[in-house]
Amino acid sequence: MIVSALALPQEINIRTVPDSIFSSPYLTLGLQAWMPELYQWRPIERLVATSLDGQQPVIFEIDTIDLPTATRRWKVNLPGHPELTFDDLRTGKWPKPTEEEIEARSKALELAQYVHDKLDIRPLTTATIVRQLREGKEDRD
Amino acid sequence: MNLLQVIVELRHSTPLKLFSPYEELYRSLTEKELPEKGVPLPGFELTISEKQMRIVVDPRRIAIVLGDVPNIGYCTDNVMAVFRKISDLVKLPPLSRLGEKSYWVEESELNFDELVAVYKKMYRPTNIIKESIDVGVSFILASGECKANIAFGPMELTQLESMFVFKPPKLPKVAEFLGIDYYLTMEQKEITERMLRDFVNSGLNYAREQSEKLMSLLKEGG
Q1: Are A1 and B8 a contacting pair at CB < 8 A?
Q2: What band does A131 get if pLDDT is binned at 50, 70 and 90?
Q3: Which of A23, B30, B48, B95 has its CA 20 to 30 A from that of B70?
Q4: Which residues pair with B141 in a beta bridge?
Q5: Whose CA is closest to B210, among B85, B103, B78?
Q6: SS3 assignment, position B144
Q7: Which of residues 33-62 of B touch A (CB under 8 A)?
């Protein structure tokens, strides 16, 4: 891929040469005519790239640091899964349910279905609401 | 596409006071400016190898590089944590620019030449296009107050490797590469935690949308 300097992780330091040294009273050529390797496509708007170039930085290196991240603030405590961390949840790594959890879930679904049938819960549609308002009663057909 | 690197940069309109202690001391004691312009202290660069993170602080900027980017939430969280630590130490000057550069990569089943041919279909088949052996596409898009400099194209392993500050553990031999520099320029705006968090989140969400659009565009073209 042909990459412009703006897409690179660090800015390229292009040598700067004053235009005046390439000029004479009779003829003035632009810098890029003399040094075509310095040619860069220039957009109308002046562009500055997001960069990590430091100003002659003093460089340090360390193994790790303790940052006040959400991982430190939030402690995950999921019963049956002590190994689970906040980072696991954030990256979508949910643990596989245990046999007991699968059994408990199916029992909960059965119970919910029983309650649903017993109470005769049906969705309240717009048509039902309009009819109830018109007829002034709340019973369901 | 997979997000493999993020750089967030806060560029300041005036130098951080941390780097001009003599000027500050002189001003504080004499209530006058230092007669001769002092030489600022050099910048600071800290690489945290386990976290694949680099923090650059110099008189005019703070940059945070993340080489391990499992998801957008992780990036925002770590950028905010570094920001909090630095702003606890020193008051940050007003901003002139906020930028977030992210790199996205998708392994290609095609070889490099075939992938170049797919990209070339985006152009009118002129002689130059027909003869070209490589291609890179670059656009500047607007998104509300922000702008995004978007560059994409095919890449081989050697070129891919040169793009990353921390070399990812596994890079494909041929890939579709997308670099998005999402930025906001301003005149002397005070930075707040909320503003930075919203910017980092919206920049990465915008970049993810663009990566999805690019992939569907290439599928249509391929």
Answers
A1: no
A2: confident
A3: B95
A4: B148
A5: B103
A6: coil
A7: 40, 42-51, 54, 56-61
Q: Which of B71, B140, B179 sits opposite A90 (nearest CB)?
A: B71
Q: Tell me whether residues A71 and B77 touch, CB distance under 8 A.
A: yes
Quick check: B138 and A7 CB within 8 A? yes
The secondary structure of residue B48, as a DSSP letter, is: E
Instruction: Compute the distance between CA of residue A16 and CA of residue B76 in angstroms, rounded to an integer.
Output: 37
- Would the CB atoms of A59 and B47 count as touching at under 8 Å? yes
Q: Return contacts of B193-201, CB within 8 angstroms, 24+ apart.
A: B193/B80, B193/B83, B193/B84, B196/B10, B196/B79, B196/B80, B196/B83, B196/B98, B197/B76, B197/B80, B199/B98, B199/B100, B199/B146, B200/B8, B200/B75, B200/B76, B200/B79, B200/B80, B200/B100, B201/B72, B201/B76
CA of B190, closest CA in chain A: separation in Å?
19
Which pTM was predicted? 0.74
User: A70: nearest CA in chain B?
Assistant: B77
User: Any CB–CB contact under 8 A between B209 and chain A?
Assistant: no
Contacts A55 to B, Cβ<8 Å: 40, 42-43, 58-60
Tokens 């990812």, residue? B168
Considering CB atoms only, which of B45, B84, B183 is closest to A57? B45
CA gap A115, A105 in Å, rounded: 15
**Which residues form the domain of B7?**
2-221
Backbone phi, psi, residue B97, to 5° = -160, 140
ipTM (interface pTM): 0.79
- Per-residue pLDDT reduced to its tens digit, B109-156: 999 999 999 988 888 888 888 888 998 888 899 999 999 999 999 999
The total number of residues shown for chain B amounts to: 222
3-state class of B213 per DSSP? helix
Number of separate domains in chain B:
1
The residues, any chain, with a CB within 8 Å of residue A122's CB and separated by 6 or more, are A140
Q: Residue A52 forms beta bridges with which residues? A: none
- The pLDDT mean for chain B works out to 91
